[in-house]
Fold each of these.
Amino acid sequence: MIMKPRFENLVDAHGGRLLQLARMMLRRGDEAEDVVQDILLKLWQQMPALEPGRELGWMLICTRNACLDLLRRRSRGRALLHLVVDGEPGSDAATDAVCPEAELIAAQRARRLREAIAAMPEPARSLLVLRDIQDIDVATVAELLDLSANQVKVYTFRARRALRQRLEEDSDNERKQEHVA
Amino acid sequence: MNGSRNMLPESEQRRFDADLEAELRVCSDRSLDDPALLADRLLRRELAAMAPAPLPARLRHRLMRRLSPRPVWPLALAASALAALVLALTLRSSPPTPTLTPTPTPDEVQQLGYALAVIGEHTQDGIRRALRHGENALDRPLLEPANLPYLDLIRSALPGPAVPLPNPQEYTR
């Protein structure tokens, strides 16, 4: 059976990307894993009809749409509940381990980045994850987000700059709080 | 250069073009003298270092387990074990079947003959009594009590040399 090796290759090549995108969007590791599992099971069912080479775009569209659906449901259900960002479940395995001091600083910075990205509006968040973190080509992202190639580039630039300004503001605020303390 | 899908106002278009140019410079290897663009490039590199980890082995295993069809053999094994158990219980609870010997022993033939003689005697007695009481109301039966056929039939069916049937009067209760 030729389907299974192809499927396993896709899971190994792109499963981590999907999980990272879902974690960035949902901020909850358990929900992100459920979403990715559902998408990959759907991929298994749809694979005979999918043109080889177009699977990644298809998976990203499905993952992003599933996350957006979940976020919409969540915001309807918990309109008054302030969602506290919990880095642990949404963090990548690489930064979950207890680190030496230097690595701890890097891990804190990575966590701050993840939280800041997760707080970005769409499509800025998806653009940062797909283009800057995962380095997915412009054409695939353009198709995924229904944008032109130049729009992808410009909106990514703007999203990155907004992220940088937000991070700078956060560290300014922290410095001020430390000064007051 | 208009890469945006919709027509933009002129000022917006200029801003779009400027941002596009800036993005191309940030993504290129050219040196940058603008500190803002340099900071953008550094952030981009930092984000690129957050490349995704592979799918956790636990999740991958869970996924593959859901893909593979469940093996049938455990079900078949369980079904056959259950069937064997039911069969064993049924056989144990049913009454033991008598063992039939192909040739009865003389003692068995004697006991059987006694039983049949007793039955025959009582039956003939019952018929005589019924005839006596219902003589006026009933037609006379075709068979005389003394000529009932089944004793001879049974005697002829028994294998081996004819064993004389005992006289029931010889037995005491």
Amino acid sequence: MTTRLVRSVAGLALVSAVISVLIFRLNSPLAAVFELSVCAGLISVIFVTTISFTQRLTPERLEERRKQRFDKYLYLPIILLAVGILLLIFKPRMDFPLPPVPKEQDARNIIWHLRHIDLLGQILVILAGVFGVVILFKEPRK
Amino acid sequence: MSLEGAQTFWYFNIFITLLFVMGAYYIIASFNLIRALIGLELLIKAVTLLIILAGYLTNNEGLAQALVITLIVIEVVIMVVAGGIVVSVYRNNHSLDTRKLKELKG
């Protein structure tokens, strides 16, 4: 089980790397760097650390879970494939109007001037996360 | 939006939809808490790509990048706290199976 979880995390990191390439192709290099370094790097480390705190499940339970999963959700990939084929055949036009937004292309200017309140929110979210982790791992008083 | 923009949106939209369905499928089909977190991560990645795509098509890449950076910071904090919760659940229940999470008091 642990090996399969680590493989899943590796797959997630691969998806993140592909997405960072796509973001770079969409003319957003700063977000691509963040995606590659933080999402593909830091979050993978967080997942592997979390997995390392857990132990291996027994093979009997693993086999039982695998059978249940295949029995219950066998039809979902088929539906997904059918929907994908239908979407490929009937390409809908997405020619809808979008509201105008300020024309500022430099992400650094936008972060530090136009969206500077977001930075305050980010700091508060990080502090909330730090306090949450401290409370979660606090040793009980004897 | 121009015709080329609509085509670009359509091609990326297939990938975004696939990512979203994969994440939802991961959350629904799995009983492991860590796999549920991975599914949530896939959902967030789909939203990230959608924001960047919208910024590209409306010629507002800077604003989209600023929003995505904020989203990534929030995403990391969510994953750190959720990882801590997963470890705490494992310490209390000796299992990561969501079907065994019947005693959440405390």
